[in-house]
Every structure is written in structure tokens, then in C-alpha cells.
């Protein structure tokens, strides 16, 4: 651009000079003409003016043209400048790209350097190893004075070196082979690890399958178990003979009562020497030598049904002094069904039950046995088929000591008196009730069953007990309610339309347990004594008639899940 400006300026100067020269020459000519002619001064003046005007016009035109050309040059320069800017931008971008390339190449170079260093280190190590191998193969040479050059010795040495080289190569190939072997072993190990992983997965799947099968099996087993119980009958009768004082198993025949184990060929019977009658009772037969533990084990399947949501009732029936209280409550060191069943729920099935309640029916009045402030007798509230006793104390039991303590408190508060037949005869019916909640881990359903444990007062013949006064009143009330119970069973036996539950408070309270959808277990307790034969016969007749009662299919009380915390599991 500066060149073109210079050219324009030069053009301008040349034109200007030419103009000036032309004008000056014309002027000189004219002046000369005028000086010599002295005639045309006005022409001279106008010519001068014209000349100056022409010079001015030319000058201005040239200046204008120069300016226009300069503008063009400037525009051209601007274009060029923009192009250059663009080029600079491109170059900057390329520069940054190249810088990136340089940094990545630097990194690559660094890593290559590192790799090289590693390789060198490996190489060094390998060299070291070779050296050490050579050293191990070649015994350390002692610095010996240089012998005179001996060609045979030199040959020997060169042969030794050759051998050493050969052994070195052998060692290297051995090391290579060992390395390859190790690689192969590693591959095999990897394969075996993968294989064992696959086997483990298969085993896990198999285990899961087995678990689901087990769950199905458990459901089936449970339903079959309940069906078996239904087939066996929802009322089961067990006979237990009290241990006679001074008697043992061998002299039982002298006592005229024999209870033999059940089998189809040899049914259970009680042989009384003068009656020779048979009475049918369920297995397991409880003979003289049966322990409390065995008695409980016999009833355990029925009691366990409670956790499955069934209402279960255990009754002990028999003449006074035949061992009902012993069977149900038992002595401290050998507890009966009451305590063992609660312990079973707590320990084995981890069942969760409502607080325990205990009441006695004494002379047709209901007394709370666990209350700390005895008040007026309680009343039964009937709501459809369910019975409740408002105001009855419920005690929460947590430990085994609580269970035993609660049972002992109730037992202490129960009315007992000494009679001619039993030193400590129960004068009332005892009812222990607990509601057991369970949760089926397979189906997730929660269940609620009620367990009623009933120790009935003993039936007594007034002629034998020779009861008088209060004992007589008690005996009459006991016999009346036991008769009502027998009537209920008789009505149930012949499927009567009306079952006389309301004939006594005992049968009214037991109605939910005897009204068809519950499971019932009756102990008929008998005495081994000859003098009690008539009562034994009567008790066995009761048991036999109870056994002929067929309650309808027991109903399970299922509840929506997770309604209660700490559910029992079975
Ligand atoms: N199987 C047995 N083994 C040892 N002793 C027994 C057995 N059964 C009962 N007894 C004893 O017989 C006596 C009377 O038993 P228990 O009080 O249990 O009779 P009961 O049927 O409850 O009488 P009641 O109806 O008058 O209350 C008690 O001293 C008891 O210890």
C-alpha cells in the first residue's frame, strides 16, 4: 500500500510540475509578446488567470483522484488485514491443536521412557540373573598368578567356557519351560476357578430350588398333619390311671385295673375283675407308669394346633382324688400340662400370647384367681358364639419363672379343702386361658388360637365322701355342673339340635371349645383302687361317650398379616 501511495504522489507531483512549466512557458511567451507589443495586457491577465485556474483544477483533480485511490488502497488493505486475522486465528487453533499433540506425545514419550526404564531394569535384572547363574555354575575363581600362556590350558579353558555356555543355554531353556509350565498351570487354575464359580452358582440355584421345594413340602406336611388330626378326630380321649400309694406296675393286677397299650388286635380296655367290660380310649394310652412328660407329649400335637390358629381345649375329668390336678398342674418339680404347654410355646415355637387369665367356677360363681383385690363375682358376656368375662385379670408372662409364679398364684387362690377322699380336694373348676398368635413363615399369614386348660373338680358320691355343710353344697354344685357337661357331650354325640350349654356356667364358658370348630382333648383320670371301681366305671363310660362325639372340621382363625408385633413362628 505504501508503494501505491508513493506512485500516486509522484504522478501528482509530475502532473503539477508539467502544468506549472506549461503555464510558466505560456506566461513567458505572452509576457514577451506583451512587452514587445505593449498592446494586449488584458489578454495577458486573462491568460494568467486561466493558467492559474487550470493549474488549480488539475491540482485539485489530481488530489481528488489520489484520495480516491488511497481509499481503494485502504479498503484493499482492510480486506487483506481481515484475511490475515483469519489466517492468524486458524494458525492459533492449529497451534493449540499442535500443543495438545505435543503434550500427548510428551506423555507418550514419558510412558515410553518409563517402559524403556522398566525394560532396562528387567534387562539389568536378567543380566544379573545370568551373571548369578554363571557364578553359580562357575566356581569362584581364585586370583592366581597369571600362568604363562599355555595352549593346552587355553583350549581347556575355552572348552570349559563352551560347556558353561551350553549349560547356561540349557538353564535358560529350562527356566523358559518352567515359566511356560507355570503359565499353563495358571491358565488351568483360572479355568478351574471359573468352573468352581459356575458350580457354586449352580449349587446356589439348586439350594434355592430346594428351599422352595422345602417350603412347598412344609405347607403340604402341615395340611396333611392337620388332616391326620381331623381323621383321628377333633375330640381325643386319653385315660390316665393314678399311681396307687404303695403300688407298682407288677401288682396292678391285684388292684383289678389293667390298661393295655392300644393296637387293633388288642384294644384298650380296663378290666375290672367283676365287670369285665371294655372301654375305648385313644392312644397314647397312659398307664400307671406314664410320666408327666409322656402325658404332655401325647397331647402336644393338639396343643401345637393352637399356633396354627385352632381353638384348643384340654379337659381333665375324673372322680375326686384320681389325679386331675396332678395331671394339669402337677407338683413343682414335675409340672403338668398347664405349665409345660406354656413353656412349649415360649421356648420351642417362640409363640407370642396374650396375657394369661385364670378363673375358678365355685358354686356357680366366677372368681378371678389372679386379681390382687378380690371383689364381686364376675359375669359371662355372651357375644354370638364367643364368650368373654369382663373384668378378668390378665397377667403378662415373660419368662418361665413368670409362668410358674402365675400358675402358683392362681393355684393358691383356688378353693381347696380336705375331704374324706382327698386331703387337698379341689372344690372348683379351674380354667386357664391364653390366646396364642402365630405367623406362618411360608404363607406369611398370622393366626390366633385359644388354648383353654380346664381342671375340673372331681365327681364325688356323697355317700362315700360323707360331706356335710359347705362341703355338701360344693359337692352338689360340682356334680350338677359335671352332669351338665355330660349332657352337653351326650347331645353332641347324637347331634341334637339343641345343645344345653346354658345349663351351667362351666358348659357356657366351654361352649366355644365344644361347639364344633375346635380341637378338644379329654383326660379321663381313674383310680387304680378296688374301692373306686364304680367311679372308675362311670368315668370310663364318660370318656367312651365323649370319644363318640364327632366335632365338625376344626376351623383355623387366620388374620391379616403383620397386625401384631413379635409374632410367633412355627
Ligand atoms: N400319676 C400320679 N403319680 C403320683 N401321684 C399322683 C398321680 N396322680 C395323682 N397323684 C396324687 O394323688 C393325690 C390326688 O391327686 P389330685 O389332687 O391331683 O386329684 P384330683 O383328681 O385333682 O382330686 P380333686 O378332684 O379332689 O381335686 C395327690 O396327692 C397326687 O399327688
Automatic annotation (TrEMBL):
<keyword id="KW-0547">Nucleotide-binding</keyword>
<dbReference type="InterPro" id="IPR019821">
    <property type="entry name" value="Kinesin_motor_CS"/>
</dbReference>
<feature type="coiled-coil region">
    <location>
        <begin position="168"/>
        <end position="199"/>
    </location>
</feature>
<keyword id="KW-1133">Transmembrane helix</keyword>
<dbReference type="GO" id="GO:0007018">
    <property type="term" value="P:microtubule-based movement"/>
</dbReference>
<keyword id="KW-0175">Coiled coil</keyword>
<keyword id="KW-0206">Cytoskeleton</keyword>
<keyword id="KW-0963">Cytoplasm</keyword>
<dbReference type="InterPro" id="IPR027640">
    <property type="entry name" value="Kinesin-like_fam"/>
</dbReference>
<dbReference type="GO" id="GO:0005524">
    <property type="term" value="F:ATP binding"/>
</dbReference>
<dbReference type="InterPro" id="IPR036961">
    <property type="entry name" value="Kinesin_motor_dom_sf"/>
</dbReference>
<dbReference type="InterPro" id="IPR027417">
    <property type="entry name" value="P-loop_NTPase"/>
</dbReference>
<dbReference type="GO" id="GO:0008017">
    <property type="term" value="F:microtubule binding"/>
</dbReference>
<dbReference type="GO" id="GO:0005874">
    <property type="term" value="C:microtubule"/>
</dbReference>
<comment type="similarity">
    <text>Belongs to the TRAFAC class myosin-kinesin ATPase superfamily. Kinesin family.</text>
</comment>
<feature type="domain" description="Kinesin motor">
    <location>
        <begin position="234"/>
        <end position="549"/>
    </location>
</feature>
<feature type="binding site">
    <location>
        <begin position="318"/>
        <end position="325"/>
    </location>
    <ligand>
        <name>ATP</name>
    </ligand>
</feature>
<keyword id="KW-0472">Membrane</keyword>
<feature type="transmembrane region" description="Helical">
    <location>
        <begin position="6"/>
        <end position="30"/>
    </location>
</feature>
<keyword id="KW-0067">ATP-binding</keyword>
<protein>
    <recommendedName>
        <fullName>Kinesin-like protein</fullName>
    </recommendedName>
</protein>
<feature type="transmembrane region" description="Helical">
    <location>
        <begin position="42"/>
        <end position="60"/>
    </location>
</feature>
<feature type="coiled-coil region">
    <location>
        <begin position="74"/>
        <end position="136"/>
    </location>
</feature>
<keyword id="KW-0812">Transmembrane</keyword>
<dbReference type="GO" id="GO:0003777">
    <property type="term" value="F:microtubule motor activity"/>
</dbReference>
<keyword id="KW-0505">Motor protein</keyword>
<dbReference type="Pfam" id="PF00225">
    <property type="entry name" value="Kinesin"/>
</dbReference>
<keyword id="KW-0493">Microtubule</keyword>
<dbReference type="InterPro" id="IPR001752">
    <property type="entry name" value="Kinesin_motor_dom"/>
</dbReference>
Amino acid at each position: 500500500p505504501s508503494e501505491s501511495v508513493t506512485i500516486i504522489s509522484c504522478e501528482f507531483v509530475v502532473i503539477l510540475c508539467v502544468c506549472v512549466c506549461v503555464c510558466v512557458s505560456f506566461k513567458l511567451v505572452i509576457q514577451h509578446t506583451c512587452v514587445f507589443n505593449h498592446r494586449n495586457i488584458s489578454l495577458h491577465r486573462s491568460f494568467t488567470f486561466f493558467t492559474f485556474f487550470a493549474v488549480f483544477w488539475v491540482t485539485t483533480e489530481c488530489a481528488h483522484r489520489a484520495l480516491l485511490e488511497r481509499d481503494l488502497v485502504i479498503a484493499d488493505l482492510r480486506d487483506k488485514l481481515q484475511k490475515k486475522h483469519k489466517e492468524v486465528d486458524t494458525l492459533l487453533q492449529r497451534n493449540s491443536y499442535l500443543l495438545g499433540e505435543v503434550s500427548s506425545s510428551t506423555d507418550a514419550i514419558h510412558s515410553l521412557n518409563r517402559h524403556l526404564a522398566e525394560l532396562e531394569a528387567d534387562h539389568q535384572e536378567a543380566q544379573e540373573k545370568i551373571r548369578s547363574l554363571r557364578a553359580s555354575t562357575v566356581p569362584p575363581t581364585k586370583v592366581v598368578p597369571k600362568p604363562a600362556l599355555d595352549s593346552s590350558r587355553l583350549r581347556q579353558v575355552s572348552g570349559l567356557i563352551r560347556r558353561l555356555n551350553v549349560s547356561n543355554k540349557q538353564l535358560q531353556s529350562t527356566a523358559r519351560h518352567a515359566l511356560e509350565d507355570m503359565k499353563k498351570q495358571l491358565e488351568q487354575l483360572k479355568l478351574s476357578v471359573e468352573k468352581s464359580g459356575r458350580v457354586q452358582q449352580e449349587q446356589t440355584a439348586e439350594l434355592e430350588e430346594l428351599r422352595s421345594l422345602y417350603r412347598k413340602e412344609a405347607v403340604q406336611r402341615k395340611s396333611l398333619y392337620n388332616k391326620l388330626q381331623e381323621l383321628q378326630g377333633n375330640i381325643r380321649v386319653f385315660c390316665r390311671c393314678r399311681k396307687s400309694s404303695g403300688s407298682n406296675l407288677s401288682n396292678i393286677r391285684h388292684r383289678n385295673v389293667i390298661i393295655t397299650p392300644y393296637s387293633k388286635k388288642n384294644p384298650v380296655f380296663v378290666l375290672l375283675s367283676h365287670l369285665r367290660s371294655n372301654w375305648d380310649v385313644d392312644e397314647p394310652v397312659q398307664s400307671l407308669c406314664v410320666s408327666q412328660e409322656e402325658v404332655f407329649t401325647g397331647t402336644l400335637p393338639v396343643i401345637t394346633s393352637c399356633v396354627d390358629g385352632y381353638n384348643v381345649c384340654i379337659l381333665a375329668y375324673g372322680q375326686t382324688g384320681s389325679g386331675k390336678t396332678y395331671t394339669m398342674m402337677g407338683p413343682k418339680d414335675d409340672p403338668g400340662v398347664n405349665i409345660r404347654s406354656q413353656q412349649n410355646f415360649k421356648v420351642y415355637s417362640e409363640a407370642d400370647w396374650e396375657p394369661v387369665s385364670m378363673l375358678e367356677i365355685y358354686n356357680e360363681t366366677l372368681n378371678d384367681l389372679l386379681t390382687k383385690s378380690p371383689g364381686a363375682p364376675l359375669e359371662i358376656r355372651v357375644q354370638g358364639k364367643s364368650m368373654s368375662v369382663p373384668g378378668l385379670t390378665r397377667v403378662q408372662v415373660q419368662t418361665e419363672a413368670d409362668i410358674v409364679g402365675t400358675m402358683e398364684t392362681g393355684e393358691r387362690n383356688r378353693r381347696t379343702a380336705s375331704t374324706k377322699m382327698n386331703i387337698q380336694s379341689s372344690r372348683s373348676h379351674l380354667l386357664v386361658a391364653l390366646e396364642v398368635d402365630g405367623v406362618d413363615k411360608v404363607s406369611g399369614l398370622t393366626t390366633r388360637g385359644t388354648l383353654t386348660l380346664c381342671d375340673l373338680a372331681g365327681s364325688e358320691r356323697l355317700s362315700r365322701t360323707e360331706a356335710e355343710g359347705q362341703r355338701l353344697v360344693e359337692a352338689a354344685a360340682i356334680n350338677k355342673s359335671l352332669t351338665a357337661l355330660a349332657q352337653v357331650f351326650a347331645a353332641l354325640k347324637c347331634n341334637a339340635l339343641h345343645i344345653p350349654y346354658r345349663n351351667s356356667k362351666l358348659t357356657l364358658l366351654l361352649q366355644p371349645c365344644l361347639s364344633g370348630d375346635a380341637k378338644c382333648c379329654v383326660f379321663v383320670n381313674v383310680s387304680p383302687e378296688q374301692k373306686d371301681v364304680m367311679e372308675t366305671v362311670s368315668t370310663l363310660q364318660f370318656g367312651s361317650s365323649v370319644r363318640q362325639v364327632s366335632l365338625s372340621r376344626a376351623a383355623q382363625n387366620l388374620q391379616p398379616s403383620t397386625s401384631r408385633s413379635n409374632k410367633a413362628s412355627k
